[in-house]
Each structure stands twice: as C-alpha cells, then as structure tokens.
Amino acid sequence: MNSIIKLEIQKKTFKKKGFSILNDFKLEVEPGERLCIIGESGVGKTSLLNIIGLLDTQYQGSYKLFGSSVKDLSRNKLAEWRNQKIGFVLQESALINSLTIEDNIKLPLMYANIEKDLTVQDHFKRIVNKIGIEPILKKKPLDCSGGQRSRAAFARAVIMNPQIILSDEPTASLDLENKEKIINLLFDMNKEFNTTVITVTHDLDVANRHERIITLERNE
Amino acid sequence: MKILHFFITRIFLKRWTLVLGMIILLFLANYLSFTAARSIISTFQGYQEIETLNQEGTFIANLDPNSEADFDRIEIDDTKKVYEYLNKNYTYAMQVDGFVTSLYNKYKMEVSFNYINEEAYKINQFRLSQGNHLNFNYKFNKEEIPVLVGAGLATTYPVGSYIEITDPVTQQLVNLKVQGVLEKNTHRSNFYAPNSKNYFNFSIFLPINEEFIQSAGLDLLVNGLMDMVLLDSTKEKATNLSELIQENLGLKFNFFNQQENFNYFEDSYFDSLKIICIITFILLLIIVCLAIWNTLVSIRLMIKDFTINLLVGLSYSKLRAIFYSYFGILFSINLVILFVITAFNRYGFWLKKDSIFATYGMFGLISMDWIALLIVLFIDLIIGFTIVELTIKKIKSIPISVGVLK
Q: Per the UniProt record, which residue ranges are transmembrane (chain B) (predicted)?
C-alpha cells in the first residue's frame, strides 16, 4: 500500500536553544493506520506533530504528504490542507473562549467557505449528535466542563472529514469516563472513514490501544 | 469579507479597550499631522502671496513694536500732511480692512469694508466671478462709488445693484454701486503671520483715491500707514517718510526692504516651520511606537486565538489582508472624525457670524483642508504599513505550534 506520510528528517534544529531533535528520523504511515508516538518530555513529540501537521516546515529533510513534497507547497496550500485534510485534536483548552461551542466547531467550515452548505449542515448535526454536545452548542467554552470542551475540540477536528487526525495529549486532564469517550470517538472515526490517526501521549493505556507505537528517544 | 467580519467582531472587539486605545492613538497621530500639514500649507500659501512684494524698491511699513505709540495725540491735520507728502513723492499701495458695519444680507453676517487704493488692487490681482474690476477715477461725493462684493453678498447685492450706507470712515452717506463679485474664498494673508488669513466673502471692496483720502477720518488714515507698501522707492526715501511720520504723528515706523523682509521670513517662518515639522515628527514617532506596542500587546493576548485559526485553515497571507483591512477601517473611522471636526469648525464660523473666517467649500472644507487630509491619508498608509508588517513579523516569529495551546 502507498504511504500517506513519508517523512525523512535529518534534524530539526532550535538555533536559539542550541540543540537539535529528531536526528535521522524516518517515518512512513499507511492510510487508516493508528499510530502512537510516545517518549519522555523534550524528545520532540509535539515538534514531530507540528511537522506532520504542516505547521512547521523549518527542518532538514524531506516530507511527502499524499504523494506531494511539502516543501514545494505554498503557504496558502499548506493552510488549505490543514483546513481540509488534517484535523487537530488538542487538549480541552484549544478553543476560542470568546466564541460559542458551535462557532468553535464551525471555524474550519468558515475557512473552507462551506458553512452554508446543506450537506455540511447535516454533517454538523450528525457529528454533534454522535459526540453528544448538542446541549452546549450555544454555551461559551468557559461555561462547559473539561470533558465537554474536549469533545467540542474533537468535533472541530473532524468536522471537515479529514484524512489524518493528529491528536496531542487528547486525554490529558480528563477523568476516566471522558478519556474513554474521546478515545472511542477517535477510533470510531478511524473505523468508519479509514482516517489515519496519529496520537502523541504519555498515557501508556491510551498508547497500547493503537496498532503501532513509536518511542522517541533523546539524541546523544 | 466574512473572515474579516469574524475577526473584527469575534476577536478584536472582544478586547475593545485595546481597539479603543488604538483608535485614540491613531486619531492623535492623524490630528497632529493634519494640523501641522494645514499650518504648513497655509504658511506656504501666505508666503507665496507676500513673495510678490519682495521686489527691488519695495518697502513695507511696520509700526516698530518697541515704540511707545500714543494714538490719542494724533491729529487729523498732521495725518493729512503725511498723506500730502506721500501723494506728492511716492507710489504706494494701501489696503485697510476691519471696518465692520451692519448691512443687511441673507446670512445675517457682519459686513466688513475693505478700502483699497489702485496700487494695492494691482498687487492683489483679485479674481472676479461676475462683473468688472474696480475703477478708481470716480468723483467722491458726486458720483456713486463702484464696489466689489464678496461671494456671500452676491445674492443680496448682485452686480448692478446699489447700496446706500453711511461710510464708516468718512461718516458720510454714500451710494455704492456693485460692479463685480469676488471669487469665493478670496483672501489675504497677514504680512507678518502668513498662516493667518482674512477671507473676503462678506466684504465690500471700496476703491480709494486721493479725494477719498482727503475726506477720510483719522481711523483710515492711521490704519492705512500700518501695512503701507512703498513701491519704486529707495531706502533713503523710506527713511525720510519714516522721519516725517515720527515728527508729525509720534509713531516710529520701520520700512523693510526686499532683503530685510526675506530675512525676516527666513528667521521667523522657515525656522518655525522646521520646528513644527520636527515636533510633529517626534510626536508622530512616539504615537506610532505606542500604537505598535498596543498591537503587540493585543497579539500577545490573542496568540491562542490566532494559533487556533492558523491550525484550522487561516494562512499568513489571509491574516495580513485581515490586518490591512482592520487598520484601513480604523484609519477610515479617524479620517471621518477628522473630517467632521474640520467641517464643524468651518461651519462654526458661519454659526458665530464670524464673517472674516466664513468660507465656502465642498462639504464645508476648503482646498487647504482637503490637501491636509490627503497628506494625512498618505501618512496613514505609511503608519498602517509599518504596524501591519511589524505585527505579521511578530506573529511569524512565534512558531505556530500545538504546543502554544497546551
């Protein structure tokens, strides 16, 4: 099968801090794969997620996403792919507090200019029902519980039906019940739409539920 | 447009104190540039008008500011002696205004009489919108006096109409015939303060000849000496006149020649213009720095919001367009406020019946106001460009990272 992600990093250097990470790091990911990245703090887990998620292009190496070289893509194209092909599942705090939950979820639709599309509206309703956040749609994030905010952040990540979901510590600071809900939602998406899921976590219980686990180690 | 609306209503205005602070800072920058630009334009216009007097053989009378003038001691006969001497030996330009009278007009403005002799009339080269130029060879007290009226009086006193009035300087009943109408906003700059102007929209220009001067009262004769211009003269002749005036009237007059006038303007006005420009520039710099600081504080407070937007599809080019549009809106708000204040100030002269400052203009603004607004617009473009590019540079220097959201 063709790899959806083909990444070869020689190194990622932080000039100001004077060190480099991800030295001679290689990664290939198949479509629909569930991959987990673990490792101690500071080894470059989030940096790797930034690179895979097209947020960071400042590294030595090559990266092919969906068969295209990322370095050849314009900034606008990168933004478009972040909007349409990649969903970021982040911690509960990754919501704009001045917006309602509904507006937060619909944010990617605005950038894709499809928020008025009827099929999109149906899709929105389906996602909201499935995630169980209908009662809080008109609330502001600060008026919701941590679990509700996490589910809202998840809804925003999947509203565009992305091909890849990148999740960074999606269950941090959640109780057992909410943690379970988020992981189930993530894997339901994977099963239902063959979405590739890449998760960064410290939680070994969460990690063990993925097909493949990569452990990042500190460079000597 | 939708994204811009979203950013303004849902992100920027959520921290409205920062937006208000920015509007106030930008307004200060605009107001400062506007007043400085208008003052410079006005001074430059006045300077150009006065430049025509900077000719060989031209001397402008000026009452010495250090002399102790006692106007109560001045006798009409002594003044007439001075004018007899002047008429016999000199060519001079004389223009006296400020004689206010209550003459009915549509706008209920005070009407000011402006007495002008033929030489002063030639120098001023007034332009008319209707009628003919003045003639100076009428017989005072025997014929009607041809006059020009300001644009504001043209409907009440059109060309060919007559005005019967007691002349303020001769105290005689005179019959004035309107011979022409001055163009709108005809004005004269003060010789010694070129940025200060009197507008003649509600003035009556009355031609004066030797006969009129003989009949005139003390007010006109003494005031006529104040800004009198000697033409085709010499320093020696000017000194003689100065001595004669001192002897008869007890007033010490200086007569500045071309070079002295030029030096005077150089010292007083170019230096003051330089000071205005330097102070304005320094203040502008401080205000722009404060505005940049305000923006960077906003960015720091909103970085999480920006990062989330960048994660879900916002690009830097869209963000740059959003910032340019946002600052475009802020500058437009300020320009509208500035326009309204200026128009209201101009309209205020009409409300206060302040006829020497009442002007005509598109939406109440005269040409120098529009030029100053254009200069402000240009300065706004520079300020806007500086702030937006620095802001984008700052945002780009913060790596978009999911780490920012932890």
A: 12-32, 278-303, 323-344, 370-392
**Which residues in chain A have Cβ-Cβ distances shorter than 8 Å to B6?**
110
We report the CATH number of the domain holding residue A190 as: 3.40.50.300
Nearest alpha-carbon partner for B162 in B201, B130, B125, B204: B204
pLDDT tens digits along A34-63: 999 999 888 888 889 989 999 888 889 999
In sequence order, the 6+-apart residues with CB closer than 8 A to the CB of A128 are A105, A134, A137, A155
| Cα distances (angstroms) measured from residue B209 to each of B136, B191, B205 | 6, 23, 13
8 Å CB contact of B405 and A91:
yes
3-class DSSP assignment, residue B55: coil
The answer to whether residue A219 scores a pLDDT higher than 70 is no
A74 in a structural domain: no
Residue A129: inside a domain: yes
Which residues on A lie below 8 Å from B312 (Cβ)? Answer: 82-83, 88, 107-108, 111, 156
- pLDDT tens-place string over residues B166-177: 888 888 889 999
Is pLDDT above 90 for B378?
Answer: yes
Q: Name chain B contacts of A75, Cβ cutoff 8 Å.
A: 315-317
ipTM above 0.90, yes or no: no
**Domain region containing A145:** 32-46+82-215
Q: What integer pLDDT is reported at residue B189 of this predicted model?
A: 86
pLDDT above 90 (res B3): no
Kindly state whether residue A67 falls inside one of the protein's structural domains: no
CB contact under 8 A, B6 and A110: yes
CA distance B229 to B224: 10
In chain A, the number of structural domains is 1
CB atoms closer than 10 angstroms to residue B338: 20
CA A165 to chain B, closest CA, distance in angstroms equals 12
With tokens 């478009």, the residue in question is: A80
User: Does B313 sit within 8 Å of A82, measured CB to CB?
Assistant: yes
- The pair of structure tokens assigned to B154 is 């043209």
pLDDT in tens, A67-123: 999 999 998 899 999 999 999 987 666 899 989 999 999 999 999 988 888 888 898
Chain A: closest CA distance from residue B400 (Å): 6
Q: Do A46 and B400 touch (CB under 8 A)?
A: no
What is d(CA A42, CA A23) in angstroms, rounded to the nearest whole number?
14
Assess A55–B contact: CB distance below 8 Å, yes or no: yes
